[in-house]
Amino acid sequence: MHVFVTGGTGLIGSAVVTELLRNGHTVLALARSDASALAVEAAGAEPLRGGLADLDVLRAGAASADGVIHLAFDHDFSSADAVARAVAEESAALAALGEELVGSDRPLVTVAGTPYTPGRASTEADPLSTDGLVGGRGRAVTAVLGLATRGVRSTAVRLPRTVHNNGDGGFAGMLTAIARRTGVSGYPGDGTQRWPAVHALDAAVLFRLALERAPAGTSWHAVADAGDAVRDIAAVIGRRLGLPVNPMPPETYGPLAGIFATDQPSSSVHTRTEIGWEPTHPSLLADLENIRP
User: Fold this and answer.
1) CA distance 25 to 23
2) Of 64, 131, 174, 188, which is most buried, counting CB atoms within 10 Å of its CB?
3) Helices in 147-199 by DSSP H: which ranges?
């Protein structure tokens, strides 16, 4: 397939582009800067200049492709307003991509997060949250899956709280950045809350499988580690950076404090059984050993 990819130069997107090219697909990747365009070309893909807010560019990219993988998102978590702007931008982009593919039976693979289900690990059958700080993302992804009734082979790959590679990425990567800034490898609450995780190279395989074979209207969990205690994550970070490991007040984590403090394990049993995905790369705790002091 000729695949249009948004977010193709990020931690996950660059792995997805490489995975697609290695498996015989060609890639047109959205590039919002000269540096991004050069990175896309260096990877062996074709750049399409524009950003997530350039809806006409997104429509043109989707129109020229056999399928679309959407990964782009502005990861500015500095304030609730910044998050709201990012969610609104992504929602408009998804709506534009979806409308362009209506009636074509072409695949549209979008990204979501694994849902929070109190008292147990979430599964692929659980609905996404449509409330709270990032509830708009849940509403946008739900709308994309609804396009299955309008001739779009729409699917969602749900990512866990940490997608990592070489010791960086996701919530764990944010903990590392905060530790470097504060001089303490901290965690919210008592640290027993669990975060699921996956290596970016394993997640990339699932995005490809969803593009190639997932039925319309389905959701899949890119979960390799069902849930590591945040205290254990902070312990590795602290050891690697030579910093003390202690609980930190909620304000340390800004608008994500409530999410950071929540126990949110997740399962991928259905995904592994039904679509044949099997992660093979290092676990989060093992990968965090690559953090440089």
Assistant:
1) 6
2) 188
3) 170-182
| Domain ranges for the chain | 2-162+197-225, 166-196+227-265+283-290
Work out the number of other CB atoms within 10 angstroms of the CB of residue 79.
11
Distance CA 132, CA 144 (A): 20
- Strand ranges in 194-280 using DSSP code E only, listed in sequence order: 194-199, 218-221, 225-229, 245-247
Find, among 264, 133, 117, 251, the residue nearest to 188 by Cα: 251
User: Rounded to whole angstroms, how far apart are CA atoms 11 and 72?
Assistant: 11
User: 48: part of which helix (H) or strand (E)?
Assistant: strand 46-49
- The third-level CATH classification (topology) of the domain covering 2-162+197-225 is Rossmann fold (3.40.50)
Amino acid 192 reads: T
Query: Contact, 45 vs 16, CB < 8 A?
Result: no
Task: Round to whole Å and give the CA distance between 285 and 49.
Answer: 37
CATH topology of domain 166-196+227-265+283-290: UDP-galactose 4-epimerase; domain 1 (3.90.25)
pLDDT value at position 133? 75
C-alpha of 102 from chain center: 24
Q: What is the pLDDT of residues 192-233, one digit of tens each?
A: 999 999 999 999 999 999 999 999 999 999 999 999 999 999
